[in-house]
Amino acid sequence: MENPFRNLPSVNDLLETPALKKIVDKVSHNVVANNVRSFLDDARERLKDKTTDFNIPSPSEMADSIAEWISTEDQPSLQPVINGTGVILHTGLGRAPLADQAIEAISEVSRGYASVEVSLQTGKRSHRVEAVEKLLKELTGAEAAAVVNNNAAATLLTLSAMADGKEVIVSRGELIEIGGSYRLPDVMTASGSRLKEVGTTNKTRISDYEQAIGDETAALMKVHTSNYLVCGFTESTGIQELVALGKKRNLPVIDDVGSGALVDFSKYGLPNEPTVCDSLAAGADVVLFSGDKLIGGPQCGIVVGKLKQIQKITKHPMMRAMRVDKMTLAGLAETLRLYRDLEQAETKIPLLSMLSSSLDNLRNRANRLIPRLEGLSHLDSVKIIEEKSMMGGGTIPTQTVPTICLQIKPNKLSVQQFSDRLRCTKNPVFGRIQNDFFLLDLRTIQPRQDRLLIDSLGLKNSQQE
Length: 465
Known about the structure:
This protein has 465 residues and is an alpha/beta fold. It folds into three domains: 4-73, no CATH class; 82-92 and 354-457, Alpha-Beta Complex (Aspartate Aminotransferase, domain 1); 100-348, 3-Layer(aba) Sandwich (Aspartate Aminotransferase, domain 2), CATH 3.40.640.10. Helix content is 40%, strand content 18%. The strands form four sheets. A seven-stranded mixed sheet has the order 2-10-9-8-7-3-6, sandwiched between helices. A four-stranded antiparallel sheet has the order 11-12-15-14. A two-stranded parallel sheet has the order 1-13. Helix 3 packs across helix 4, helix 6 (130-140) runs parallel beside helix 14 (326-338) and helix 15 packs across helix 16 (350-356). The mean pLDDT is 88.
């Protein structure tokens, strides 16, 4: 009986096939050789299993299969995508895109060494926060600042430094949970502080805080409920009232404003978002906020406030575990510099550019795209419609911004299949399905991506072709 294993090609034979020679240039000889060996090992196992009906493919067929396998497996899971969902701060898609200036700064300091903790003036050791502290003080009016890897870390570090083993008084209506099952009470417990809830879900008065103060109270805390809204029969305590009480009882006030607006977002039709400057001007001792949401910078958590409290926070042992690297500092510094001139910021920071873009501008872009799409045989119709964009990222949940969308109806695929195919193109596209149409929101698609969008909508680069 003929030995079926003899019909299997050798590793070298397969490596000499055109399909695998071509893919060696894209990855490496070792990667291809290891995958060939794995494929052949699998074939031998299937031949050993007498219950498996396994027909040995030709060497060229094997090579094609291996090449396709390597191409699929070697595809990075983290890729640039086109966000046509209309969710401006889409957490799943990386929140705010960075300004070109921030990207260039990150690239520049990443190529080699950088003055992260060395003073260029004295040559002596310095603190890495100096790269951004001056800018944060200038833009917010704070006495001092610190930067950690996200706002959850900022909360944990601040509470550990200011209230370890003691009580922090918080309104029951502000005990938030955000994405990833992050709950404020859990963070407070992890910090070593003890939560003391006051008021009710819908009403918390200043008297509730005052009556709760005791010998073990270390701080009063206010948390902006950015990802939900309680309407109707409600009452809450403003930061000014809380600060007045803090001064009266000699207690520091911590204000977690969440998304971290440095400008008044009401000019973009998004009111009721507290600004960092307003909180500090009201007298808050410490203000916590994100760098990658309403600021439009890299992911980080920012702590600003009075020098005494910030020094206590930065000297805490946990600070080292939460500090940011040179790339985050470089990106944040360049983003903050743009805020010195709001007109410039609206042009160069993608988040602000998206929000300030007029409907006429979006409609003009749509009119330029339509003729490029009307000739595609797999599209039944493409129309321009008015819709609403959302902020996302746990920010301003009830507020929307008017926008322009492309409303697409495919004719060879279902809308869901069309959406699935677009995610698998060379330049992956995300949109939203609504009323059995596929919508692409031009507010969240950057103008420089329009050409890539046309290519992807043609499905010519689909990985599933």
